[in-house]
Amino acid sequence: MSYSEKLREHAKQLGRDVSIALIGAGQMGRGFGNQVHRMPGLSVNLVVDIDETRIRELFKDLGITDVKITNVAKEIDAALKEGKAVGATTSEFVHEIAGIDFVVECTGVPDIGARITYNSLEAGKDVAVLNVEMDVTIGPLIHQTALKNNRVYTVCHGDEPIEAKVLVDFARDLNFEVVCAGKGKNNPFEPFSNPDTVRERADKKKMNPKMLCSFTDGTKTMTEMVALANTTGLELSKRGFYGPESTVKTLQNTFALQKDGGVLDRPGVVDYCTGDVAPGVFVIVRTDSPYVAHEMSYLSMGPGPYFSLYRPYHLASVEAPLSVARAVTLRESSLFAPSLQGEVVAMTKKDLNPGDVIDGIGGYSVRGYADIAKDAKRDNLVPVGLVQGATVTQAIKAGELLTYDHVELKEDSLIVQLRRKQDELGLTYAK
Q1: β-strand 235-236 against 281-286: which pairing, if any?
Q2: Helix (H/G/I), strand (E/B), else coil: 414
Q3: In the chain, helix, strand, coil percent, each to 5?
Q4: Mean pLDDT over all residues of the chain?
Q5: Terminal Cα-to-Cα distance of the chain (whole angstroms)
Q6: Which helix (H) or strand (E) holds 141?
Q7: Three-state SS for 162?
Q8: How far apart are CA 368 and CA 190, in angstroms?
Q9: Helix/strand/coil for 286
C-alpha cells in the first residue's frame, strides 16, 4: 500500500487531516508547504516565520488568502478550530497549540531547531526537521526524548543523508559489504566565503546568502556526511574527509581501497566527492561471493570487485513530506542518530580576538568541519552548532579549529544546555 493510500485511510480513521505547524517559510519551508498541500491526509494549518510576508506568500501558493496572523496561543487555537489558516511571527508557544498534531521545523538554525523540537516532543507532538545542523549536534538526546514520550522524531527525506542511507540499507539487506557511502558536492568549495562574497549568486538563485554561504564554505557537506555516518554507524574516512574529484562512471575506482588504486585506507566509511556526481548520492559495495560478483558484472554494474550504487538526484523539500507520511502511518523515523560517529566542529574563517561574538553557520566567523567524534573529544573541539552568539576568550587565527577553551558559550541557549545533558547522560559518542 502506498503512502497516499495509507494517509487516506489514516484520515478516514481520524476523521480529519493531520494538522501540521510549519516553522520557517523560506526556500525549504515554502517547498515543503507546496508539496504537502498536494498529498492526502496532511494539512499545513499554521505557518510560523519572522516575516509575515513570507507567511502570506506561502498560503497564497496554496490558494489561501484569508489568513489570521496572531501571536496569541488561545487565538491560534480558536482560529484552527474554525478551520482558518493561521500565521505567527514567533514559535515560542507552538508546542502549546492543542490543534496541532505534527511540527515540521525548517529554519536550519540549530538553537531554534533545538527549542522547537525538544519542546514539541515533550508536549506530545511528532516532529520532522529539515535541520540536519541541529541533529548532528544533539540528535542522540532528541531521539531519546522522542522514545521517552512515545513520539516520532525524524530528519526529513530529500536531503542527501537519508537518500544515501536508503542505498546503504539496500546494500546491507543484500549482505553486500559497504565500502563507502557519500554524495557529490553541489557547489564550488570556497572555505573562506561569507554572505557578502556569495550575495550576487544568492540573489540570482533567490536564496538567503547565509544558506548559500553554508554550501560554498563546506559546512553543509560536512554536516550531511556526518549525519550519514551517525545514522548508519559508518565511520568518517578521516578528519575533513578526502573529498576527491570523481565522475559517476569512476566512483567505484575513486572510492576503492588504496591498495586497489583508490583513496580509502579502510572500508566502512563515509566521504564525498566533487565532479559530476552531484546532485546524486552513492554507495560503493563489494561481495565475498564470486558468483554474485559475476552476476553484478552481467547486470552491467562493471567488472568489479567494487560496484557503485548511484541515485542521480535528491529532491530536497519536495521529498520531505514522505518522512511525515512515514511517521504518521507507520510510526517510524526516516533518519535518527543513536550516537555520534562524527562531529561537525567549528573552524575559523578569519582571525578572531577576545571579545568577538561568533555569528554562526553561514556567517563571517566560522564554518563547519567534520571530525571523527573520539578525536574531537580528545582535542576538546567545540561543535559548530553551539557557537552562535559565543564570545571569543582567546585569540585564534583563521583556518584553525575552535576548542572549548577559545570561547564562552551562551549558557542560556537551549541547544548548549541540551548538548551538556546529552554528554552527561553518555549518549553522545558511539561505544
Answers
A1: unpaired
A2: helix
A3: 40, 20, 40
A4: 96
A5: 38
A6: helix 132-148
A7: helix
A8: 12
A9: strand
The secondary structure of residue 420, as a DSSP letter, is H
Is there a cis peptide before residue 279, judged by omega within 30 degrees of 0? Answer: yes
Q: Which amino acid is at 84?
A: K
Helix (H) or strand (E) holding 37: none
Let me know how long the chain is.
431
Q: What's CA 66's distance to the chain center, in Å?
A: 33
pLDDT tens digits along 172-197 = 999 999 999 999 998 889 999 999 99
Contact present, 93 and 53 (Cβ < 8 Å): no
Residues whose CB falls within 8 Å of the CB of residue 75, separated by 6 or more in sequence, listed in order: 68
Q: Mapping DSSP to helix (H, G, I), strand (E, B) and coil, where does residue 370 land?
A: strand
Q: Which domains, and CATH codes, for the chain?
A: 3-158+318-330 (3.40.50.720), 160-305 (no CATH), 343-424 (3.90.1210.10)
Residues 6+ positions from 408 with CB-CB distance below 8 Å: 390, 391, 393
Cell of 235: 565511520
Nearest C-alpha neighbor of 22 from the set 97, 74, 78, 82: 97
pTM equals 0.96
Residue 387 CA, chain-centre distance (Å), reads 18
Q: How far apart are CA 72 and CA 91, in angstroms?
A: 11
- In order, the DSSP letters of 194-227 are -HHHHHHHHHHHT--HHHHHHHHTSHHHHHHHHH
Distance CA 287, CA 124 (A): 44
